Amino acid sequence: HSVVRNALFCLETAANEKENHVYTKALMAYAFALAGKEEKRKALLGSLEKEAVKKDGSVHWQRPGKEPEVHLPYYHYRAPSAEVEMTAYVLLAHLTTQPAPSQEELSFASLIAKWISGQQNPSGGFSSTQ
Question: Where is each Alpha-macroglobulin-like TED domain found (predicted)?
Fold first, then answer.
C-alpha cells in the first residue's frame, strides 16, 4: 500500500538523521523489524547498544539527562514507565527478525528481559499501564 510505503520512507529519512532520541531509535528499530528492513533494524540496534546501560548483568536504556537513581535500603527503585517501554521496544526489535534471531541476539535479549522483569512490582505489573 502506498500509505505504508510512504510511512516507511518517512521513517528511513528520519533514521538517517544524526541526532535521534533513544526512544525514537527504539521505536524505529521495532518498526523496521516488523517491515522486514533488516539492514535498518541492525543499524539502529547497533546505535542503541552504544547507548545501553549495562549494569548488574542486565541491559536497559534510559533518557538522556536523567537524574541518578536513589539507593535506599528500604526502597526498591523502579524505572519510569517510558524507560521500561523503550527497553521493551528494543527487546522486540531484537526478537522480531527473519530468519530467527541469532544465538548472540538471544543472549543479549535475555539481558534485556532480565532488567524488564526486575521492574515488575510485587503484583506482577509495572509502574504504570503505559
Answer: 2-130
